């Protein structure tokens, strides 16, 4: 059995094979290719534990054999939620080796997300960490309490695997919830050959439809995206990569991420969280050379860097992606962190764009890079589906050797987001520079319609972020009886910052009046999604209770100065 997915048309697949993009190798090749002396090199550092390539290979073989001994078959699915620990990668390779197709949930997903994924894939295996807050083992010691209702009936305790405390022998850290040990001899190996054209695992869609969508990724397409990322980023065995964002995220996993570092023979340093208190000492101790961050965390690093005693001099490149990086913040990277910046604009659905390390400073600071593959096809279209003139903003459509052809079991949605030629609509509003770099200007779902006038939230945020008193700003629609919608800015700002000053500044930058936020709400923090992006949906909910101009009667607390 294999997991169903929308394939590339046969002639397209043949072309990708002929060009050497799809090699027929399994995704586990990123580790398997390191034989001989290279097998002694350090693949993963996790706390005090060190795993050589030989260890990762042997431990994932043993786990895979144990899964087969439990009766798991190729084409079975698994729901996995693990923290940023070496076990995440080792278990991932084990599942790939026996053809079990996982959804790797983010560690900060709750029972809601896990149930939604479980309903879609009907897992035959669930893997959770005992340390996770959701996993309070019930007195009977069977299923984790808060997940019982969801998962009971889907998997029994004989198919629930729990990760315990860290141990050298990773296999020993896992135990079945039915109390049985994992049966795997030290030299056990899985008995299965992988069809590289089939689904390796599911990536998670950022989503905008309410139901989290799953993205089938094949061995062929994903391995190509990893190999090409390694080429574009120039990774080699000397790379020491800090895995600080959630390990399953497409950025952290494959752009070039941990899989790219493995492919290059480098070392992945696991960090439990991306904050400077955790990461700066790890950078100093392990001489980390590469790190991947989302923009809000980059800002935290930039603020913390001048005051740290940790030696950050080994850092060569900090990659930033997942959300729009404001040029004003980007400019500070070389001076504050003493390293280069690479912008990464990617999506779990496929297409990944990089600024190149030898790009000119303007490009690195102001653009989100260009597609990594010569066979990435990108269209920037107006609402009528016509290509926009060069430099103008339009909706980004993409297809190519590692961009998927359909969400899992989502025919209706697929019909909306794919065109007849197989191009996928990302929902991003982008423009292209004369030399082919993309600039993300917003998202069509992230727009404010102010009485017919459209406000690109990102555009206003970027300008606002250039004000010296502003740390971060997020602008969302708030309902208004007259205009339909008005704009509301949630702002992290220096104490005593006045709305009038911010308005004056925005006007001074030449911004159209209708784009000036109708309301300012000063906040200490902005809510974040599971991967650390600003959570606009939560802000939209909050904005509903912010009085609009017309409903407003007394002194608006929201218009007070920043506390
Ligand atoms: C990455 O993947 P996802 O699937 O979590 O989110 C994709 C969406 C994009 O469509 C875009 O709206 C936004 O996140 N995005 C960016 C961005 N990178 C992603 N928007 C502006 N600037 C950027 N640099 O987020 C992802 C996947 C692979 C590599 C990097 C990021």
From TrEMBL:
Regions of compositional bias (Polar residues) in chain numbering: 546-563
EC number in record: 2.7.7.58
Taxonomy, superkingdom: Bacteria
InterPro entries assigned: AMP-bd_C, AMP-bd_C_sf, AMP-binding_CS, AMP-dep_synth/lig_dom, ANL_N_sf, ATP-dep_AMP-bd_enzyme, DHB_AMP_lig
Span list, region Disordered: 537-563
Pathway where this protein functions: Siderophore biosynthesis
Protein name: (2,3-dihydroxybenzoyl)adenylate synthase
The organism's taxonomic lineage, starting at the top: Bacteria, Pseudomonadati, Pseudomonadota, Alphaproteobacteria, Rhodospirillales
């Amino acid at each position: 059995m294999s997991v169903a997915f929308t394939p590339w048309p046969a002639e397209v697949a043949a072309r990708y094979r002929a060009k050497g993009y799809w090699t027929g190798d399994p995704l586990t090749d990123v580790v398997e290719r390191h034989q001989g002396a290279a097998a002694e090199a350090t693949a993963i550092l996790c706390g005090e534990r060190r795993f050589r390539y030989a260890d990762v290979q042997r431990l994932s073989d043993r786990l895979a054999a144990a899964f087969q001994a439990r009766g798991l078959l190729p084409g079975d699915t698994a729901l996995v939620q693990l923290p940023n620990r070496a076990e995440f990668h080792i278990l991932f390779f084990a599942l790939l080796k026996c053809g079990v197709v996982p959804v790797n949930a983010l560690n900060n997903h709750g029972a809601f997300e896990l149930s939604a994924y479980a309903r879609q894939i009907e897992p035959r295996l669930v893997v959770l960490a005992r340390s996770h807050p959701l996993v309070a083992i019930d007195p009977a010691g069977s299923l984790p309490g808060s997940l019982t209702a969801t998962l009971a009936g889907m998997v029994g305790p004989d198919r629930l695997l729990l990760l315990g405390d860290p141990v050298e022998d990773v296999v020993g850290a896992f135990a079945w919830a039915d109390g049985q040990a994992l049966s795997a001899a030290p030299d056990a190996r899985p008995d299965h050959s992988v069809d590289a054209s089939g689904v390796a695992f599911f990536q998670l869609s950022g989503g905008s439809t309410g139901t989290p969508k799953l993205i089938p990724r094949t061995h062929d397409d994903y391995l190509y995206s990893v190999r090409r990322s390694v080429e574009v980023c120039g990774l080699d065995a000397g790379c020491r990569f800090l895995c600080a964002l959630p390990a399953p995220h497409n950025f952290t996993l494959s752009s070039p991420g941990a899989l790219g570092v493995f492919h290059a023979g480098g070392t992945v340093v696991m960090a439990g969280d991306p904050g400077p208190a955790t990461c700066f000492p790890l950078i100093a101790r392990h001489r980390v050379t590469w790190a991947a961050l989302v923009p809000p965390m980059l800002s935290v690093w930039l603020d913390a860097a001048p005051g740290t005693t940790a030696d950050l001099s080994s850092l060569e490149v900090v990659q930033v992606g997942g959300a729009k990086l404001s040029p004003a913040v980007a400019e500070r990277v070389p001076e504050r962190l003493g390293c280069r910046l690479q912008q990464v604009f990617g999506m779990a659905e496929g297409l990944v764009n990089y600024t190149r390390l030898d790009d000119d400073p303007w490009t690195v600071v102001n653009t989100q890079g260009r597609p990594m593959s010569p066979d990435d096809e990108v269209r920037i279209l107006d609402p009528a589906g016509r290509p926009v003139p060069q430099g103008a903003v339009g909706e980004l459509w993409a297809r190519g050797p590692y961009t998927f052809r359909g969400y899992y079991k989502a025919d209706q949605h697929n019909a909306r987001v794919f065109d007849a030629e197989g191009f996928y609509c990302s929902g991003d509003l982008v423009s292209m520079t004369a030399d082919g770099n993309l600039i993300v200007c917003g998202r069509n779902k992230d727009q404010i319609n102010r009485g017919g006038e459209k406000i690109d939230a990102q555009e206003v945020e970027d300008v606002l972020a250039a004000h010296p008193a502003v740390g971060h700003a997020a602008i969302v629609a708030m309902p208004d009886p007259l205009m339909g919608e008005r704009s509301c800015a949630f702002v992290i700002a220096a104490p005593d910052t006045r709305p009038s000053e911010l308005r004056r500044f925005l006007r001074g930058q030449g911004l159209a009046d209708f784009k000036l936020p109708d309301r300012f709400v000063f906040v200490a923090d902005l809510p974040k999604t599971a991967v650390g992006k600003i959570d606009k949906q939560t802000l939209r909910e909050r904005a509903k209770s912010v009085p609009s101009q017309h409903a407003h009667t007394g002194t608006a607390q929201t218009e007070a100065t920043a506390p």
